[in-house]
Amino acid sequence: MAALAVLSTSSYYFTKCEFGVHSKKPLIPQKREILIQSPNHYGNRRRRRRIEVSKVTSEDGFVIVEDDLQALLAILPQDLRDNLLNEPRKSELLEVVLDLGRLPEARFLGVSGGKYLRNSEVSLKELEEAQNAVGEFGGDNRAGIEGTLHRISAIRSRKGSIVGLTCRVGRAVSGHVDMVLDLLQYQESILFLGRPGVGKTTVMREMARVLADELHKRVVIVDTSNEIGGDGDIPHAAIGGARRMQVPKPSLQHKVMIEAVENHTPEVIIVDEIGTEAEALACRSIAERGVMLIGTAHGERLENIIKNHTLSDLIGGVETVTLGDDEARARRSQKSILERKAPATFPFLIEMRERHYWVTHRTERSVDMLLHGKTPFVEIRRRDDQFQVLIERWQPYDGQGI
Hints:
The protein is of the alpha+beta class. It is built from ten helices and 22 strands. InterPro entries: AAA+_ATPase, P-loop_NTPase, Spore_III_AA_AAA+_ATPase.
């Protein structure tokens, strides 16, 4: 019999009553100006900068804080900027795609396909002007706009010139962390899996804020592409009191992870997109020093990580073991079997199937059962129609075997 737990969502994360989420009206942005105070480079003196913040409440109950959409639109050609400013769905804008010789396209949250913004193609001059407005791109062909969470990604030709831009809107979204608020009390590392765009980085950002500001942990973010803390030397206010270490080159992420532990005494390290063997080894080294890790990795399901020789160390690694005749007969298995070879770096693993539907594993238990050809039991975390978090325990896992 499956156990069902309900986590009521506090008004700190959900403001559905205040903003009238129950109505099915279109999203209406409520703009206001706030003052952000941040330390400058000269000690205790503080500078004040005024930014425009747009709060939009969606039908799913989240409060989306969109930090200065104007800054993203400013790098676009004037006619595209005007079209998007008059677009009824601009509060749902996901990204703008500019490809040389093709029509410019806008894409929106929750909608398949895109919308062409004009009938003429993108010119080389327009791409060059956008590139000049953004500035220098990093080794991962990404750039940002200082003081915002927006991300600009480039596509280059074989000669190295930019022939395409993906201008993605960065938003700070509150309301995700309550899906795992109960797990944070264990102070154990959590690995998130999910396809691109499902909200992994957004969860990282909010978890950083909650761990630093509400649970009073020493949190350090290793921010390779400035996606979590935003572009610029001063991190975005969405990460709260968490500290952010930038990475000069993507290939150096593992070194910065170790540096964070050795130099800054963190209790929690947050890292996005663990993708290399060196980063997986760095994660294990950090976990062995007693530091809590919050990370994301490439893959959608647990079995993707088990089969990935580069990343399998995150879940304890896999090795082939040869059994004796008697042991093989007792297990009713072949003599050569797969076993987990070490403790998992991340005791919890969460598959983010959708923004509101997560599958939670106790990593070692699930890995062992999958390697033995059995079906593990997991927790299903989802939201109901009233925006409450429901946890269904002891559900059979619906993933593929190994």
